[in-house]
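For the sake of transparency, this paper describes our internal protein records without simplification. The tokens are whole numbers drawn from a learned vocabulary of local backbone shapes. One such record is reproduced below, unchanged from the form in which we store it.

. . .
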Amino acid sequence: MYGCGCATGTLETVMPRLRTAPLQRSQRLSASQNRRLSTVGAYITLTKPRIIEQLLITTIPTMFVAARGVPGSWLMVATFVGGTLAAAGANAINMVWDRDIDALMERTKHRPLVTGVITPRAALTFAIGLEVLAFAWLWWQVNLLSAALAVAACLFYVFVYTIWLKRISVENIVIGGAAGAVPVLIGWSAVRNSLALAPVVLFAVIFVWTPPHFWALAVKYKDDYGKAGVPMLPVVASLTATAKRIIAYTVVLWVLSIVFYQVGGMGFIYLGAAIVLGAAFLAYAIALYRDGSVKTAMKLFIYSNAYITLLFGSMMLDQVVKVGR
């Protein structure tokens, strides 16, 4: 009787454990998979995908202009891949350097280096690896000039903007924004293996577009930048003064976009788009000056993204239509 009772008690004790063991293993496996996915997602976040998207929006249409039609498919893919790697590496280095101020700002406090998902050393290794790979890839599949321009843009973004200007000068985004204009040079050089006046004018377009685009966003996050000690224009100047500078840059942007019609040998599709899109940009800038609200600033910021996409999209369409005639 005792033997039977003991066996029954043991079986009743062991069976629940046997049933829960597979579930526990499954939970551990699921947790491990989630950690891996979280780490992969963190590395992707480190590259700032949205900024990369904006850079490539300007690269590919420039290639169409340089080719006077549709460039080779593989050349576009190779330039796209190399440009993505180069921009991703630069953005990751930026996050490594800025992790202290990112921790102070609401907009950036959940970035992976702030939360500790990725260590600074791992992030820096990852970033440098991307830059080396970008240079090698572009040199191998495109040309040396494009590879050199990509690395030069990274060095300028890291050392001139991130390390030197961002924390000490109100002109940080004005000068530092030049790095974001280099992709048009890369796109042109990928096709021509040389540079000319046309891509330089396009460089100027992006260079002048960057400050009003970024200042509009900084209006919303000026308290964040102030807390972190970053002297973005809306932090150190009144909204009225900021809006005036945005208007001035917008006028120059409008003129440069129209100048490119002549310099770049563009057609009426592009010219019409440049005139209409520039007028709308100026209207948003004037509205910010009159209204002075964060809501209007964000409308301007959103439109500035649409502006650059539509302007360069019209550039590409212009060339495709020319070829089709």
Notes: Confidence is low (pLDDT under 50) at residues 1-9.
